Amino acid sequence: MNAKPSETTPANPPRPAPRPIRNAATLILLRDGARGMEVLMLRRAEKADDQNSGASVFPGGVVDTHDRSLHLMCKGLDDAAASARLGVAEGGLDYYAAAVRECFEEAGVLFASDAEDRVVELDRLPASRLEAMRHAAEQGTDALLAMCDAQGWRLAVDRLAYFSHWLTPPGMPRRFDTRFFIAQMPAGQSVKPDGRETVEHMWLRPADAVHPDRGLKLMNVTRRTLEQLAAFESTASCMTHARGLAGIVLNMPRLADGPQGRRAVNIDEAAYPEIGRLDPDGTGHARYALEAGLVMQLSARVWRVTGSSGASPDEPGSNSYFVGGERGPCALIVSQPHQAAASGVLLRSAAPGQVRWLLSTAPRTAAAVDSLESLRSSWPGAAVRWPAPGETLDVGGATLATQAAAGGTSPDALQFLLTEERTLFTGATGAPAVHANDGSVEWIAPANGFLLRRGA
Q1: Within 13 Å and on the Cβ side, how many CA atoms surround 233?
Q2: Which of 76, 143, 286, 402 is 20–30 Å from 293 (CA)?
Q3: 64-78 confidence digits (pLDDT tens)
């Protein structure tokens, strides 16, 4: 469901059947224009049941099983070197060959060299002959192989530079494991969309392509790639950068819900680690924004309630956590007792069971004690506790180990470790100091924001 403030989101909805992942390759064409580096964008044809219908994209497509037959026609790179560059055991050259093939099919641009190692200038060929060659190549990989062999051409895969690696989020109707390459637009060639898969082409500066005024429909991966490319002033600088990249990481966004509806969340966003923990299968029930009044079940033992800031009822404030066994009594851990007291009605309605312990990660002050005591009006039988560091509490079958807060906070501030889940509840707004050799902590539940994965 789409969780809204004051609603709860389940931690473990039914898992969907895994979707097949297909290998794909994309070739980003670059050229230098009067105002800086430009990138080729193709507009896809409008098609029913196509998640990319009408989107502006780079040339690319699925790696065909027959692309391996193109290895013998590839120049300047063998499969061992290509595989090492892409970090795969074998078949790396398949991606390079597929990128060249798809670019020719969709955009009419062919990276090929003649017998004298000169880049083929397709514009020198009669239009009818070029169209016949392209049509033949579109019939399959074998036809492209025969065409190159007849012309004495070899595929100039050495002109491609590996740029990035993306995997479609879990939960999408179709998933692709895609390698992105960049290359300079070859001289003596013109872009000609095929009219079926692609119906229009544009040369745009990357920053212009992503600008809202341009109005392009862009997939998440396309937008993010364009934002990366916008940092480069020239094709040469971009190519040099790409050829110097080492250890290209896999980017796999995750789907999540929020105020603007469901969208892809990228690995550099604060919500990403939590989404991966709560929703590894991509059902979309996790959140990319924490709103005031939002109640989230983080596990069988942990529920989080995000209060309001006090400045505005709609502005998210500090987190409070209910921690306990699946069906037994629980403890309420608050980081800012005065905000928790103001959210008493919300906390009472969100409690997953009987609350027997009221705990805080805040320094023990008279005001903090009074605020925590005020919560007993909701749970008269609950005990307000400030355990000593080293003390453990059995909260409904779950174990909370008390620790002194680290990292220069107040000496009487506490943090609590849920040992069964290796989750540390802290009053810090970010990741607190944790001993380097302490393997008991995997996740951190902060005073504000999403769960943090230690070391991420």
Answers
A1: 0
A2: 402
A3: 988 999 999 999 999
